[in-house]
Amino acid sequence: MRVAIAGAGAVGRSIAGELLENGHEILLIDKAPTAISVERVPLAEWLLADACEITSLDEAALQRCNVVIAATGDDKVNLVVSLLAKTEYGVPRVVARVNNPKNEWLFTEAWGVDVAVSTPRLMSALVEEAVSVGDLVRLLRFSHGDANLVELTLPPESALAGTQVGDVDWPEDTSLVTIIRGTRVLTPSQEETLEAGDELLFVAAQAREEQLEDLLSVRKADTTG
């Protein structure tokens, strides 16, 4: 897969390194000569150019890319790169970095963004995920369909502990994609039994998040007395 990354700073180089290890073809683009550090990511292609300029993107042959990642430290640049990649070059998948959480509302399909990654939000979500049991934590927002990747750790008092996945009446527009149990990552089958302490990852419509949280956190009815 060919991936173009706009922004060759620490974030862009780190992404490039990970993708290269997975066998992908990487092009790093940056307009700052000081950012062109070929020795740091020697297996990547490098282009000294302004990723907001059509001539630069023509030179990068963006139309041959399967994915474009707008990873600069400037939200305005990331939005322009995303829009050009999608509208002018028909790139199938556009991922954009959000630096200022106040700008998240802009990073939508209207600007060509398929997936918006807010570093501050992700960091705060990971903190919440580490200390929260029974609370839904939003990890990632997908622009298409207004869906989010969300996580909830099943509390011991949940009525669903001990219930098979296939027996749960899940809300509409939600999909359980992974169960993390200790060190294991499980693909949920209909026969898989939910256990207290399971980390459940869903792709869910934002409108269904509250309903999903209520379902997973509900306490068992008190049968004493």
UniProtKB/TrEMBL annotation:
PROSITE patterns: RCK_C, RCK_N
Domain RCK N-terminal stretches: 1-117
The RCK C-terminal domain, residue ranges: 137-218
UniProt keyword NAD present: yes
Domain of life: Bacteria
Keywords: Ion transport, NAD, Potassium, Potassium transport, Transport
Protein's name according to its UniProt entry: Trk system potassium uptake protein TrkA
Originating species: Streptomyces enissocaesilis
